[in-house]
Amino acid sequence: MSSLARRSFVLVSSAFLALIGCDDGTGTGGTGGSTTSTGGTGGGGTPDTGGTGGTGGSECTPVVELCDGLDNDCDGTVDEECPCISGQTQACYSGPSGTQDKGGCKAGTQSCNEDGVWGKCEGEILPSAETCNEVDDDCNGTVDDKSAITCGVGACQNTVSACLNGQDNTCTPGSPTSEVCDGIDNNCNQLADETFPNKGEACDTFLPGVCQPGKISCVTSGGNTAPSCVSNVMPSPEVCDGLDNDCNGQVDDNTMGTGGDCDSGLPGPCTAGSVQCVSGDLTCVSNVAPSSEVCDSVDNDCNGVVDDAPGVNEACDTGLLGVCADGLILCQPDGSTACVQQTQAAGTDMCGDNLDNDCDGVTDPGCLYTFTGVAQNVPIADLTGWTQCFLQSYSQSGTPLATILTQCNKNNLLMGCRVNGASTLIVAAHAPKADVTLNIGSSNISHPANGVGWYFDGQNSWGFAPEGSPLNRNSCDIIDSQSFPGGGATDGAFRLCWHTFGNNIDSGWRCGKADSLSGSHERLIYHAD
């Protein structure tokens, strides 16, 4: 309801009450209305007469509320929406909190205009960028606190206060020095430790393997920087090359490619192997090392022969007679060894082989005793089938060769020599008579027969040497004799020579190595068909 309507309603109501009155006829006059609201209230009446109505107030016309100390909109509240009342003033400061009244910063003044709005803050001083003037320009409580200034690089870098005695300060870099290994750019070229004394020189890291050789380098460790010997090669996975690649102090340990099964190429139990690194090469190494051979049907020493234990397959004596005495040491099923007979006894002896074929202890009974080549120490008792046809001391001479050959007239001749009266011939040889007495003159090329080199003539000498061995007949053969050792051969013990002259036996000369013989030795000839 508008203010005017409210006033009209009040006036009408008061008049009405005055007319009706109360029963006592008396009443009190009402109050007058205010100039800005409704009229006054009517007075109370008596039973007989009604009360007198109050004086009405002045009329209020609502307008837009102004900031002027009045209730312009007639709502009973004065200036209810105004920030201030025109003409009011107050202190003001728009700078950052905590800067007012520090340094040169201070508050200003604001005035309220007729619209009830505070005007611009006049006269305030706000913070500004700090300069070197001994004034706290930024109002932080500290004078000339500009950020410090830095100049130069490395060890030459210098930092000073921006202001000095109210003036801009000057930053001067330090002076460069020679570069050393300390983690600092001593020569101020923006590079630290790029060069220093002994850099790059060879050194010993005292690490194992390929990591041992090194060079002097600049190293930072544990916060400290100093020259140190650094390996030229870093540890790497181990390979088979004869080097300690992983620098653990062991060469070719746990190398790649090892451990697989392989064939070692060795016989017997040594065949199965595994790939191992040996002297810098991958090699198949037998899983079982060769061992001493024993009689167990296994090739223990891995030489390709089973049960060739020491002594096995060596000749032995069975204890039997004749050819049955020949045996070989062989392995037995129980792992032992035994001398096993190699030749079984024959029914009868075989003449001419000088063997006891029937193992009865008698060699070639009734057979001619024979042998091949030059023999030594021949028992005369063994010369079965031979008959002595000539015996003479080495000191004797003059017996015609024709006489000797007439006495020794059978198909085979055996020549020998001995110490006087001995039962053993020192050296002996035999062959068909035609070969023994073949005249070769003074030639030094012997005639071969039955493994013997024969020579004969009536003016120089008669004798023999091993077949194929050289002769030096002067007039007897002197090679490797006691008086003439060596001479192209070392078989003097197997030589015999008798001097001849004028187709007669002459005295001397050798029996084996012994030469210039005389009455101490005898020469013998046996013959047989």
Characterization of the model:
- With 529 residues, this protein is mostly beta strands.
- Helix content is 5%, strand content 25%.
- The longest helix is centred in the N-terminal third of the chain and has 18 residues, at 3-20.
- It is rod-shaped.
- The model is unreliable at 1-48 (pLDDT under 50).
Largest sheet: 5 strands, antiparallel
Q: State the helix count.
A: 3
- Give the total of beta strands: 25
Strand order of the largest sheet: 16-19-18-25-17
What is the first-to-last residue Cα distance? 188 Å
Q: What structural category arises from helix and sheet content?
A: mainly beta
What is the beta-strand fraction? Answer: 25-35%
Shape: rod-shaped
Q: What's the average pLDDT?
A: 88
Radius of gyration: 75 Å
Low-confidence segments, given as residue ranges, are 1-48
Compact summary:
It contains three helices and 25 strands. The protein is 5% helix and 25% strand. By secondary structure, it is mainly beta.
Short key terms for the protein model shown above:
single chain, 529 residues, mainly beta, 3 helices, 25 strands, rod-shaped
Task: List the SSEs and their pairings.
Layout: H1 3-20, E1 89-92, E2 108-111, E3 149-151, E4 158-160, E5 163-164, E6 167-168, E7 202-204, E8 213-221, E9 224-231, E10 261-263, E11 272-278, E12 281-286, E13 315-317, E14 326-331, E15 337-341, E16 375-379, E17 387-393, H2 401-407, E18 412-419, E19 424-432, H3 433-436, E20 447-449, E21 452-456, E22 461-466, E23 496-501, E24 504-511, E25 521-528
Antiparallel strand pairs: 1-2, 3-4, 5-6, 7-8, 8-9, 10-11, 11-12, 13-14, 14-15, 16-19, 17-25, 18-19, 18-25, 20-21, 21-22, 22-23, 23-24
